[in-house]
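Field log, afternoon session.

UNIT: design team B
ACTIVITY: writing a sequence onto a fixed backbone
BACKBONE:
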């Protein structure tokens, strides 16, 4: 019985073995014969590498579709890790880099040198100024692994040793070491190529291509750079792009890490996120619209797949097409902007006092029905196309041309504050249209302090007080209101708070007991009456004054903005449209606004420069004390301001100007008049034209 069972098990085993070999032979036949072609093809594909195709950055256009910032193609030199020698062949790396650097220097090509070490005039190595983060990274475990107190010479010696640069002279060793440092800095790899030079001539590009054996792993890529139709148009608003610094890269990397950890992402979303991630040598908006609209302007990179066969032949295929960034359409009218800039420059230069504090200034034009900024000018200014070339001189200029005075400078507004106080007084019932105060030039309510007016106005009502800018009338109105009620209405006008524009702006200060005490001071009753005429602690930006004037014109305050719309790169689809965002209803009676507007119209009709315009202008000037440090001394002066809107009967725009060291707000009327002339002349021209050329159609 046992023997029979054993025979059966043996027979079953043999059958199983036979079946196994039968299946094996069938599969072997399928592999070798049936699918021979398929496996042969796979066998010659030895290497496949993905590389990034840089997406073009979105364009920036004015409100009429006129291009302001576009892109132009340039040749760049890129080190490709797929073919560049590995770190185990450091000497070969150095040979290639030395030849590449020599070629660039021979042809005057600037290459990207980020090493925070440099030689001084005596040939001694030293740290670069303002490069703390780069110095720290150089000393870090990722590069030289030195102590934080290591000297520049310590770093240089370690750099030479680490990258085997002993056979080169110190200058050359530093140059090669700079590239090696940058490769470490960006985590150089197939997916992280290094841009050696951002712009090279066709001649240099040809030399590199023709001598590929010398420049192994060095590629010429066609990329884009920012190009400006006119770099002098609104440079403070548009801004510039530049290379990522270490802090920016770290922050963006962390953002990407957090975003990619979202488990709800689809595969497509995750791929898009990856293609939009920043590399260490990427370009980013540094300030202005370029920075504020970075997420829209930045495109989505593509992927190029390069395959190498057994014979070394390469074939490339675009496996993911790049998508250009979106187009940002501004509210800025480039024609008006240019005219406002020119008028502002001519006006300031006329009043410049070379012996004391030179005049500088700004001008803002706002659409009263939307809050869109039509023009925003600062003087002195600069040219975006030469920003980096001239940066050192611009930064050292004592007139601070890089400073955006329209959005960042804050001033005591002087008498431009009075319309807001008039609104508060009328609404709260402390004054009426017919009530009067007597101006004898001196305000003697306080026994210990006497405040003055600029003139002797006698018995005067609110309209005439606005026209004549009577301090006495507004001292008394402010005293009757008190600082809290004044500020309630000033806040409705957006004074002492950000307007909401997309680019950086100052908050300013609305004078108050709380603000004074928070800064260690004491609020006195006299501060209230001083605040009522735009002095005390009040500090507002020119764009706040323009938006305040727009609110007076319409009874509604809109959020000021520079972005009109955002469209796809081909302009076919609208992603965002800004037709005006309500910031605050003033909740002020029509009668109150009528009274205040009539007072401002009286002033506009009285000043000759405004009186002679083809449209009726409502305006209010202001003059305020200022202090500035000149050669270490505090020099006192006066700043001149004007707020206005027109046409009086059906307002379209509001204009605010602020000129430092002008000594008279009324003097700004000639500049304001020029701005209105420019705007309404352009509006008349558009009305008579059948249309205009625009990329927006």
């Amino acid at each position: 019985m046992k023997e029979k069972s054993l025979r059966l098990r043996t027979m079953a085993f043999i059958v199983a073995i036979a079946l196994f070999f039968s299946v094996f032979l069938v599969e072997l036949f399928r592999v070798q014969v049936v699918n021979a072609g398929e496996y042969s093809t796979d066998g010659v594909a030895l290497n496949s590498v993905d590389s990034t195709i840089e997406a073009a950055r979105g364009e920036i256009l004015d409100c009429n579709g006129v291009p302001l910032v576009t892109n132009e193609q340039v040749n760049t030199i890129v080190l490709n890790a797929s073919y560049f020698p590995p770190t185990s062949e450091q000497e070969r790396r150095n040979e290639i880099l030395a030849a590449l650097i020599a070629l660039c220097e021979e042809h005057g090509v600037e290459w990207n040198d980020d090493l925070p070490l440099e030689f001084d005039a005596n040939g001694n190595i030293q740290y670069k100024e303002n490069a703390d983060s780069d110095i720290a990274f150089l000393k870090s475990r990722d590069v030289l692994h030195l102590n934080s107190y290591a000297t520049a010479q310590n770093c240089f010696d370690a750099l030479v040793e680490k990258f085997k640069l002993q056979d080169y002279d110190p200058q050359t060793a530093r140059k090669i070491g700079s590239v090696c440092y940058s490769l470490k800095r960006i985590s150089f790899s197939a997916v992280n190529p290094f841009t050696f030079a951002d712009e090279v001539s066709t001649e240099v590009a040809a030399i590199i291509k023709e001598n590929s054996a010398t420049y192994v792993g060095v590629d010429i890529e066609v990329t884009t750079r920012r190009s400006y139709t006119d770099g002098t148009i609104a440079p403070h608003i548009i801004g510039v792009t530049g290379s990522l610094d270490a802090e920016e890269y770290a922050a963006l990397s962390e953002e990407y890490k957090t975003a990619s950890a979202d488990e709800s992402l689809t595969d497509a979303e995750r791929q898009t996120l990856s293609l939009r991630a920043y590399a260490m040598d990427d370009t980013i908006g540094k300030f202005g619209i370029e920075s504020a609209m970075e997420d829209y302007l930045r495109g989505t990179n593509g992927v190029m797949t390069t395959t190498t066969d057994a014979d070394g032949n390469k074939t490339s295929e675009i496996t993911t097409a790049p998508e250009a960034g979106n187009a940002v359409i501004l509210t800025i009218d480039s024609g008006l902007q240019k005219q406002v800039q020119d008028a502002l420059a001519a006006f300031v230069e006329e009043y410049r006092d070379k012996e004391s504090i030179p005049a500088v200034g700004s001008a803002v034009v706002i659409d009263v029905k939307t809050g869109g900024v039509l023009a925003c000018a600062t003087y002195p200014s600069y040219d975006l196309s030469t920003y980096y070339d001239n940066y050192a001189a611009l930064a050292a200029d004592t007139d601070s041309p890089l400073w955006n005075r329209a959005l960042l400078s804050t001033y005591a507004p002087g008498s431009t504050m009075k319309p807001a106080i008039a609104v508060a007084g009328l609404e709260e019932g402390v004054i009426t249209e017919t009530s009067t105060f007597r101006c004898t030039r001196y305000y003697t309510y306080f026994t210990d302090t006497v405040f003055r007016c600029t003139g002797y106005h006698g018995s005067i009502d609110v309209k005439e007080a606005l026209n004549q800018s009577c301090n006495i009338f507004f001292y008394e109105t402010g005293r009757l209101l008190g600082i809290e009620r004044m500020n309630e209405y000033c806040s409705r006008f957006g004074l002492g708070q950000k307007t909401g524009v997309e680019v950086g702006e100052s908050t300013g200060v609305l004078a108050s007991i709380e603000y004074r005490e928070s800064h260690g001071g004491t609020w006195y009753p006299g501060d209230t009456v001083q605040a009522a005429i735009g002095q005390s602690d009040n500090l507002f930006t020119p764009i706040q004054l323009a938006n305040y004037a727009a609110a007076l014109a319409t009874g509604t305050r809109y959020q000021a903005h520079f972005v009109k719309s955002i469209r796809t790169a081909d302009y076919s689809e609208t992603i965002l449209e800004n037709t005006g965002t309500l910031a605050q209803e003033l909740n002020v009676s029509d009668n109150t606004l009528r009274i205040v507007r009539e007072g401002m119209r009286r002033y506009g009709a009285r000043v000759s420069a405004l009186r002679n315009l083809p449209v009726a202008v409502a305006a209010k000037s202001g003059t305020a004390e200022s202090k500035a440090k000149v050669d270490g001394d505090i020099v006192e002066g006066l700043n001149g301001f004007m707020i206005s809107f027109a046409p009086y009967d059906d307002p379209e725009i509001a204009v605010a100007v602020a000129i430092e060291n002008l000594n008279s707000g009324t003097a700004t009327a000639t500049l304001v008049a020029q701005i209105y002339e420019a705007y309404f002349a352009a509006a008349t021209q558009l009305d008579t034209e059948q249309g205009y050329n625009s990329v927006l159609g």
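LOG NOTE: The domain at 48-326 is CATH 3.90.1310.10 (Penicillin-binding protein 2a (Domain 2)).
NEXT ACTIVITY: expression trials, pending approval
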